[in-house]
């Protein structure tokens, strides 16, 4: 199998995870104009909870459900307990609080779960599939990763575009004051938005843990790559986040494969700087339309 | 019936409303007139819960709503059409209209209300699936008013509906509102800078000047007070 194809498939799987992270960041950015720097650490924590369940004899799928549901809950708690009290403060205050939460969770995790590096089980085999006589660099777990990210995205799209709840959530994000005049309980919509974003982040956590190994800072670089993808996509656009995340996945896979894996993080930095210099609005931003 | 009693609102040390009292009976239109900065918008924002008063009370049908959150006041049937920027520009015309009455959880009734709104404002019907930012100023105003009517409110707070609206469209909107006032007992608080047109549709009126009431009474009486008209209403 050609090296190019191997790197492309690898980039697709990694990109799906960065896309999920980017989407989580964009969902919160759109609703509150806050970059949640604790998004990665929250996903780390929920992944540890999943491992904790598996360690105590629960099957993988129970752990998977633990990760997603604790993600949902953690997002709601963070919004209610940390974000809500400073709702009216300048956004920078909240951003600094999310940095504090990042440090807190990364300090709490080794206390709660031990500081050593752990392996995390995959849902399916990570050995490449056989196609005829040749083996391809695409495993059943890769397929599961792609499929579950895709499923969550389709579900979110349906929620936001096809349901009244989604309509309320979008209205609350665009204009909280007018939304309240229309009888929308904006506070609840915000809590739900944080919960859903955190769920998407938690999904990214359990999906990438088998290949990264689990330790308290293991999601930091996923956050950085996801953030780069979100900026590339324009921060304002969910579609942009997904496309941006996938592009980052491909780009980093090619950088790692052709130039050396030490350069992946530098590659993300180069992309981030290039986007901010050439097209600071990102590929899909609504900003220009909003100003009309 | 809306009863505002001794309402005082301040932004920091600047007092925007000094002990305002006013009653809007069911099946009636009350106009609040005055120049820019008179406190008209502050008054409606306080009634709908967006601004917290320093003192006084707001009662709706006898129930104290002074400290209720805006979304809860809206759910009691108070529809506030804010000045200017009321539409959700990123959403489509249809989504904007639907949002008006979602809290009623009455899909059937809402479909009817939606159809009525489109009938009342044909320009909106032809732009149903376009984002609201593509609308003209007048169309946005129609959308704002239409969306408030979709909620089938019992109390309507209109903050300068004439802004950006062609005269013909304004007359049409006011005609529709007068029908609702007569047929469904709707109570309307109408904020206007254009005193002449407001007084021609209102039953009662009040003139604000720098946060104080300078005149209050039946609309036709205020119309006939020449001194008042010259001093505060500019016609």
Which features characterize this protein?
heterodimer, A: 292 residues, mainly alpha, ABC transporter involved in vitamin B12 uptake, BtuC, two-stranded antiparallel ribbon, 2 strands, 74% helix, globular, disordered C terminus, B: 235 residues, alpha/beta, Rossmann fold, 6-stranded mixed sheet, 4-stranded antiparallel sheet, 10 strands, 40% helix
Topology of helices and strands:
The complex is a heterodimer of chains A (292) and B (235).
Chain A: H1 3-32, H2 39-55, H3 60-83, H4 91-113, E1 130-131, E2 134-135, H5 140-162, H6 164-174, H7 176-181, H8 186-212, H9 220-233, H10 238-259, H11 264-278, H12 287-291
Antiparallel strand pairs in A: 1-2
Chain B: E1 2-11, E2 14-24, E3 28-33, H1 40-47, E4 55-60, E5 63-64, H2 70-74, E6 78-81, H3 93-101, H4 107-120, H5 122-125, H6 137-150, E7 155-159, H7 167-184, E8 187-192, H8 195-201, E9 204-209, E10 212-218, H9 219-224, H10 226-233
Parallel strand pairs in B: 3-8, 3-9, 6-7, 7-8
Antiparallel strand pairs in B: 1-2, 1-4, 4-5, 9-10
Helix pairs in contact in B: 3-6, 4-6
Helix share, percent of chain A: over 70%
| Portion in strands of chain A | under 5%
Oligomer: heterodimer
Number of domains of chain B: 2
Beta content of chain B comes to 25-35%
Shape of chain A: globular
Strand order of the largest sheet of chain A: 1-2
Examine the coordinates and then state which fold CATH places here, giving the name of the CATH topology of the largest domain in chain B.
Rossmann fold
What does it look like?
- The complex is a heterodimer of chains A (292) and B (235).
- Chain A is mainly α and 292 residues long.
- Helix content of chain A is 74%, strand content 1%.
- In chain A, a hairpin with a 2-residue loop joins strand 1 (130-131) and strand 2.
- In chain A, helix 1 (3-32) runs antiparallel to helix 8 and helix 2 (39-55) packs across helix 8.
- The longest helix of chain A is centred in the first third of the chain and has 30 residues, at 3-32.
- Chain B has helices at 40-47, 70-74, 93-101, 107-120, 122-125, 137-150, 167-184, 195-201, 219-224, 226-233, and strands at 2-11, 14-24, 28-33, 55-60, 63-64, 78-81, 155-159, 187-192, 204-209, 212-218.
- Chain B has 2 domains: 1-77 and 153-235, Rossmann fold (3-Layer(aba) Sandwich), CATH 3.40.50.300; 85-152, no CATH class.
- The longest helix of chain B is centred in the C-terminal third of the chain and has 18 residues, at 167-184.
- Classes of the chains: A mainly alpha (292), B alpha/beta (235).
- The A-B interface holds A 164, 167-168, 170-171, 174-175, 177-186, 286, 289-290, 292 and B 48-50, 69-71, 74-75, 79-80, 82, 85-91, 95, 98-100, 102-103, 131, 133, 147, 151.
């Amino acid at each position: 199998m050609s090296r190019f194809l191997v790197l492309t498939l690898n980039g697709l799987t990694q990109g799906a995870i960065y896309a999920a992270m980017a989407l989580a960041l964009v969902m919160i950015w759109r609703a509150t104009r806050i970059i949640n720097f604790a998004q990665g650490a929250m996903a780390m924590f929920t992944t540890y909870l999943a491992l904790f369940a598996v360690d105590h004899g629960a099957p993988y799928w129970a752990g998977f459900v633990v990760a997603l549901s604790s993600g949902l809950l953690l997002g709601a708690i963070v919004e209610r307990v940390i974000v809500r009290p400073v709702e009216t403060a300048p956004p920078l205050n909240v951003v600094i609080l999310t940095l504090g939460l990042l440090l807190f969770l990364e300090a709490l995790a080794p206390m709660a779960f031990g500081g050593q590096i752990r392996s995390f089980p995959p849902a399916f085999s990570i050995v490449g599939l056989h196609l005829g006589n040749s083996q391809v660099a695409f495993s059943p777990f890769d397929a599961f990763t792609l499929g579950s990210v895709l499923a969550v995205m389709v579900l979110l799209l349906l929620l936001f575009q096809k349901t009244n709840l989604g309509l309320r959530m979008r209205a609350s994000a665009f204009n909280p004051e007018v939304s309240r005049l229309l009888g929308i309980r904006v506070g609840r919509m915000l809590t739900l938005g944080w919960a859903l974003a955190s769920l998407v982040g938690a999904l990214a956590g359990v999906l990438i843990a088998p290949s990264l190994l689990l330790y308290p800072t293991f999601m930091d670089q996923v956050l950085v790559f996801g953030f780069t993808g979100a900026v590339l996509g324009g921060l304002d656009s969910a579609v942009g986040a997904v496309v941006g995340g996938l592009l980052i996945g491909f780009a980093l896979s090619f950088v790692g494969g052709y130039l050396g894996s030490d350069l992946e993080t530098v590659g993300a930095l180069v992309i981030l700087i290039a986007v901010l210099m050439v097209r600071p609005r990102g590929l899909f931003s609504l900003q220009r339309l909003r100003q009309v | 019936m809306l009863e505002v009693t001794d309402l005082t609102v301040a932004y920091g040390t600047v007092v925007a409303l000094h002990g305002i009292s006013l009653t809007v009976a069911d099946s009636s239109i009350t106009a609040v007139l005055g120049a820019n900065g008179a406190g008209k918008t502050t008054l409606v924002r306080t009634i709908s819960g967006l601004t917290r008063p320093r003192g006084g009370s707001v009662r709706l049908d006898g129930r104290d709503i002074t400290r209720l959150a805006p979304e809860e006041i809206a759910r009691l049937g108070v529809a506030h059409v804010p000045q200017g920027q009321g539409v959700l520009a990123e959403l489509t015309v249809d989504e904007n209209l639907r949002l008006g009455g979602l809290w009623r959880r009455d899909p059937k009734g809402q479909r009817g209300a939606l159809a009525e709104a489109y009938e009342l404002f044909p320009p909106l019907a032809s732009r149903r699936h376009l984002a609201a930012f593509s609308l003209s100023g007048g169309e946005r105003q129609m959308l704002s008013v239409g969306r408030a009517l979709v909620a089938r409110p019992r109390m309507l707070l209109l903050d300068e509906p004439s802004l950006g609206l062609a005269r013909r469209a304004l007359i049409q909107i006011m005609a529709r509102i007068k029908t609702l006032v007569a047929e469904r007992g709707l109570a309307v608080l109408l904020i206007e800078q254009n005193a002449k047109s407001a007084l021609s549709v209102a039953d009662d009126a009040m003139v604000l000047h720098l946060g104080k009431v300078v005149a209050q009474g039946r609309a036709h009486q205020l119309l006939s007070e020449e001194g008042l008209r010259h001093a505060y209403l500019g016609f």
